Amino acid sequence: MMEIKTEEKIDQRIDKELLFNSLQNEEMETFRDEFLQLHPYDQASFFKELAEEHRNKVYQYLSPEEMATLFENLEIDDEEYKDVLAEMNPTYAADMISKMYVDDAVDVLNELEKNQVVSYLTIMDEEAAQEIKELLHYEEYTAGSIMTTDFVSISANQTVRSAMYILKNEAPVAETIYYIYVLDEQKRLAGVISLRDLIVNDDDTMIADITNDRIVSVSVGEDQEEVARKIKDYNFLALPVVDFQNHLLGIITVDDVMDVMEEEASDDYSKLAAVTDMDTIDRSPWSAARKRLPWLIILLFLGMMTASLIGRFEETLNKVAILAVFIPLIAGMAGNTGTQALAVAVRGIATGDLEKENKWKLIIREAGTGLITGTICGILVSLVIFFWQGNLFLGILVGGSILCTLIVATLAGALIPLVMHKFKIDPAVASGPFITTINDLISILIYFGLATLFMSYLI
Predict the structure, then answer these.
(1) Which residue ranges run through the membrane (predicted)?
(2) How would you write the chain as a 3-class SS string?
(3) Nearest of 351, 153, 350 to residue 240 by alpha carbon
(4) What's the rounded Cα separation, in Å, for the pair 114 and 391?
(5) Per-residue model confidence (pLDDT) at position 318
(6) Residue 87 in contact with residue 59, Cβ under 8 Å?
(7) Residues in contact with 15: Cβ distance below 8 Å, sequence separation at least 6, in sequence order
(8) Which pLDDT score is estimated for 8?
(9) The domain made up of 13-133 is a member of CATH 1.25.60.10
């Protein structure tokens, strides 16, 4: 109910009918008066609903700077940026991109073809183009690729009065002003002060006297997921990015980190579901099938290995046909418990919790969990089969198979992500369907191996 009320409030803030009518009737002043009073997120939400003919009027009614604010809040599929920019006059589009915060501009340009990027950079203001070029060459998914150069920096050998003067001049273009970074004579990061520090201290106080030199920073090449974790751990609003000589290159703000966390969560979920990319909704079944087929083909061959393994125990099945009844039960239990252990391990790696505790503790804990759950489930299934089939040894066989399977499957679910992480492979690749199929193989081997070994007791 709360979500519905929130949506109603949003709709009440946007007079869609008035905005649509003003576009339809070409009433520019009415449209601007109403539209520019909206929050940029609401502007972007309204813009997404417009047809191309109405969007073309928006480009005429808004300046590139006003459009840049809207564009920074526009949540569309990556490939759609190219289509929206193609609707604009190239000069208008280039001017708009130059007015965006540098990190947001780089995000947009990264979705375009190289020749388009070069074209926009050639048209736009030389100073803005140079700032964007500096960030474009950083490797994707690193701190350098998501940082912004729109920050406020001051010198240690100046007063609070002069620092406030600099802050007032640079605040309109800075992405955040809550942290002001202090640089030494070689432009290296020497410390940081907060906006509060500037406000509460006297005008004649030297910056060096109030600078906090215990700085937490990140390297320009550090993985964006590590950056997000550090901002979360320290509860920062922004984090400075430095090179190997500690020169301040840029900052990463908390809103950029929220985008990273959403992107990483989506990426991990995609892999856990054995889907290549779930960032965007596929409009075509062919496109969706192309992304899913590689994993499905791998799983198909693994499934065929399971079928082949069962075929090797054909003689055992011919002698005791009732064994076939319990194959789905044992395979399903193995897949379920393996996926649970996998989720715990992948989450621990993703959040960094496993970096703080001994990984052997996780392995021992999961082995103990498998032993306890396997014992309880094994006893229960043994009793059910005994009363159902009247065969005590069959019940013990199935129960014992479940006990062994759950221990092995739980260990596999925990160990595989840890091993992959050790070799610098994304542990989310050990997806749910993948671990389930592997555990199917293991469970069938255990089940029929035990059945073959103790065949004389079953006949």
Answers:
(1) 293-310, 322-346, 367-388, 394-420, 441-458
(2) CHHHHHHHHHHHHCCHHHHHHHHHCCCHHHHHHHHCCCCHHHHHHHHHCCCHHHHHHHHHHCCHHHHHHHHHCCCCCHHHHHHHHHHCCHHHHHHHHHHCCHHHHHHHHCCCCHHHHHHHHHHCCHHHHHHHHHHHCCCCCEHHHHCECCCCEEECCCEHHHHHHHHHHHCCCCCCCCEEEEECCCCEEEEEEEHHHHHHCCCCCEHHHHCECCCCCEECCCEHHHHHHHHHHHCCCEEEEECCCCEEEEEEEHHHHHHHHHHHHHHHHHHHCCCCCCCCCCCCHHHHHHHHHHHHHHHHHHHHHHHHHHHHCHHHHHHCHHHHHHHHHHHHHHHHHHHHHHHHHHHHHHHCHHHHCCHHHHHHHHHHHHHHHHHHHHHHHHHHHHHHHCCHHHHHHHHHHHHHHHHHHHHHHHHHHHHHHHCCCCHHHCCHHHHHHHHHHHHHHHHHHHHHHCHHHHC
(3) 153
(4) 71
(5) 78
(6) yes
(7) 34
(8) 40
(9) yes
∠ Cα 97 98 101 (to 5°): 85
Residue 293 neighbours by CB under 8 Å, 6+ apart = none
Q: Looking up tokens 């418990």, which residue turns up?
A: 337
pLDDT value, residue 449: 87
Taking only Cα atoms into account, the Rg of the chain, rounded to an integer number of angstroms, comes to 30
pLDDT of residue 287: 64
Fold category of 285-458 in CATH: Tetracycline Repressor; domain 2 (1.10.357)
CATH 3.10.580.10 given to domain 153-253: yes
User: What is the b/e burial string over 290-327, where b = at least 16 CB atoms within 10 angstroms of the residue's CB?
Assistant: eebeebeeebeebeeebeeebeebeebbeebeebeebb
Fold match, 153-253 / 285-458: no
Domain definitions of the chain by residue range:
13-133, 153-253, 285-458
pLDDT score recorded for residue 14: 72
Q: Has residue 339 got a pLDDT over 50?
A: yes
Percent of the chain predicted with pLDDT > 70: 86
* Residue with more model confidence, 256 or 374: 374
Confidence at residue 7, expressed as pLDDT on a 0 to 100 scale? 40
Q: With contact defined as beta carbons under 8 Å apart, do 51 and 81 qualify?
A: no
pLDDT of residue 172: 87
Q: What is the pLDDT of residues 125-140, one digit of tens each?
A: 888 899 898 888 888 8
- Average pLDDT of the segment spanning 37-63: 92
**For residue 147, which phi and psi values (nearest 5 degrees)?**
-80, 165
